[in-house]
């Protein structure tokens, strides 16, 4: 009975995380961690480690799918990733010097609001419009925005995928599919860095829960990414918005239970 319950919890956790990753480049940690803590009573630090490691393959397969459909900006993604990783460390160091009563629910609230935004004000930018920006200007924008995303994520400890999607679409003017593809590409490496550090510090995870989370998240991320790359822009905006709103509401519910 316990095994069946574990499989069910990890299945729904992986489904929510995979859909969020494949549609919107959302970090699996936002979904998997609260479910493992709430229903399997797992240590929060280990739950985050499992969630981050689930994010690695899910983001990688999503990035591959977006790249195959020519919806990934690798060059500027690498530039932004370097800034994000560097300033996540800086933000984390600054946060260690500040009283810890800061914005714990920032990521969840942002997920909900971003979902509403995609439903009410869809991103209809075209690739042609994206190409109107010079390569030099885009590179500078990627560095500056990577600094901002990294510092906020390091300071708050969450929200990387949502911050990237918001900035790529609203600030840098990316077309939605390219924004998500670039976001999951970056998240592959940020999640790998986080997962390795968590397991080096916290020790080995519960292997059954780890395998189930990785497999289910990977499966649903692949399904979501394939659908997203075939969908019309307006359909994708609405689907992404609905997924984010539902996940935001569900995660808020889990946070109230813990």
From TrEMBL:
The chain crosses the membrane at residues 45-66, 78-95, 101-120, 140-167, 179-200, 207-227, 239-257. The keyword S-adenosyl-L-methionine does not apply. It holds the Pfam family TauE. It is found in: Cell membrane; Membrane. It is a multi-pass membrane protein. Keywords: Cell membrane, Membrane, Transmembrane, Transmembrane helix. Its main location: membrane. Belongs to the 4-toluene sulfonate uptake permease (TSUP) (TC 2.A.102) family. This is Probable membrane transporter protein. It comes from Faecalibacterium tardum. The lineage of its organism: Bacteria, Bacillati, Bacillota, Clostridia, Eubacteriales.
């Amino acid at each position: 009975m316990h095994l069946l319950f574990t499989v069910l919890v990890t299945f729904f956790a992986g489904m929510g995380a995979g859909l969020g990753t494949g549609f919107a480049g959302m970090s699996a940690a936002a979904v998997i961690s609260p479910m493992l803590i709430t229903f399997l009573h797992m240590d929060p630090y280990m739950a985050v480690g499992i969630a981050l490691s689930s994010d690695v393959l899910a983001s990688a397969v999503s990035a591959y799918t977006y790249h195959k459909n020519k919806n990934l900006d690798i060059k500027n993604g690498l530039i932004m990733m370097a800034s994000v990783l560097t300033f996540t460390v800086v933000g984390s160091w600054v946060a260690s010097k500040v009283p810890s009563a800061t914005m714990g629910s920032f990521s969840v609230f942002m997920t909900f609001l971003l979902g509403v935004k995609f439903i009410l004000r869809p991103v209809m930018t075209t690739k042609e419009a994206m190409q109107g920006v010079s390569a030099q200007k885009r590179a500078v924008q990627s560095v500056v925005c990577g600094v901002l995303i990294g510092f906020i994520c390091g300071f708050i400890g969450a929200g990387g995928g949502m911050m990237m999607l918001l900035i790529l679409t609203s600030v840098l003017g990316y077309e939605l599919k390219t924004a998500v593809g670039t976001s999951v590409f970056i998240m592959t490496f940020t999640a790998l860095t986080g997962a390795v550090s968590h397991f080096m510090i916290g020790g080995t995870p519960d292997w059954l829960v780890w395998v189930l989370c990785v497999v289910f998240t990977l499966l649903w991320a692949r399904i979501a990414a394939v659908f997203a790359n075939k969908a019309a822009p307006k359909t994708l905006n609405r689907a992404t918005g609905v997924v984010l709103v539902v996940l935001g509401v569900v995660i808020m519910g889990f946070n109230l239970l813990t």
